[in-house]
Design a protein that fits this description.
Elements lengths: L13 H34 L1 H8 L2 H27 L3 H36 L4 H16 L1 H16 L4 H24 L4 H26 L14 H33 L3 H37 L3 H34 L8 H15 L2 H16 L4 H25 L1 H5 L1 H28 L1
Helix pairs in contact: 1-2, 1-7, 1-10, 2-5, 3-4, 3-6, 3-9, 3-10, 4-5, 4-6, 4-9, 5-8, 6-7, 6-8, 7-8, 9-14, 10-11, 10-12, 10-13, 11-12, 11-13, 13-14, 13-16, 14-16
Amino acid sequence: MAKNTTKDMTVGSPMKLILGFSVPLLFGFLFQQFYSVVDTVIVGQFLGMNALAGVGATGSINFMIVGFCMGVCSGFAIPVAHKFGARDYSGMRQIVANCVWLSLLFSAVMTVIVVFLCDDILRWMNTPEDIFEDAYSYILIIFIGIPATYLYNMLSGIIRSMGDSKVPLFFLVLSSVLNIGLDLLCIVNLRLGVAGAAIATVVSQLISGVLCLFYMIKRYEILHITKEEWKINTHHMKVLCGMGIPMGLQYSITAIGSVILQTAVNGLGSLAVASVTAAGKVSMFFCCPFDAMGSTMATYGGQNVGAKKLERVGKGLQSCVLLGSVYSVIAFVVIYLFGANLAALFVDAADPQMLQNARLFLIVNAAFYIPLALVNIVRFLIQGMGFSTFAILAGVFEMIARTIAGLILVPQFGFIGACFASPLAWIFADAFLIPAYLHVRRKLEKILG
């Protein structure tokens, strides 16, 4: 059963469990951001700014499609956590088997559709002609690699659902290191251009997914699925789709608001775009702990609901909110004191206006990190408790807020309006999520008695 790696989160101190589970996740998210920066540098330095712009032009559609895949896989893992928490291991294996069937179906259908529409999608986005070829080459290969995205994210999600956050971290780091090495090989040595960057991403994820599969087969006897358990079960598939599709749509819906906001920021000129880009790079590092807390609470909530221990869900929520609040205050102080210095790592330090804008953006966002902590903690906890449909509605509230910012705040107030876009989205989401959690809690109390 690989007791040395799985973790039962239904017993023991909630704070200790949450910290122990989230720290490896945090390192994984930080490493992902580090890889993203290195990847950007490699493309920019060896292929030039046009190639970099071509890759960047696909960012929103990449997030919308690949984010959907990742969200679906996260949702599929929640019923696995429920069964693990309830110690129904045969039922858990049946859920995993149906995860596999659905992932094969979803990845095949999505790949065919988006590959066929790839050219049209880029034209609908008004991709400039001088970077269109690079954008098309990059995103087409990323779309062809959708099955690899499903493989890696489905398997790592299943492992996390059983309380093991360290093994997914290892494979995430391995994937990132492979990606950087393959970037250099494909771009510098083989001179494949932006297509090389995309190939590196897909191949590294595929290799990590396959290795992850071999590891699971060898180490997790609890996941050795019998012939009977491999049978397609329509009830399990309905449950999995009810969890996975809403979480996938959450990413896609949120991306729509981000596209509208980015369009508005583009209208402010290159200085504003560069300032937001630099601040965004810094902000992504500071937001990694919130991502780790969210992923932790999905597993924590899933296992404890499966074990019918609702009192522990509330205690875990209190512990994680306290943890998030303390970190938010520390992060704000660091950003207030050193925000300009950190932004200077990504922009020309000789431009004081750009640094001033980036610092302002960082400070305004950091002032609302506690609402951001609540968004991640409460949303993922609700999803882990089995009510992932609420993820769509929370995403809709964020989309509405960013649309308001893009259509009203930015045109009316300029750059400062862009600074308040994300805080507004977090507040809108919290206004929905907090009452939603109370509703879910009352509903489960009636169901579980």
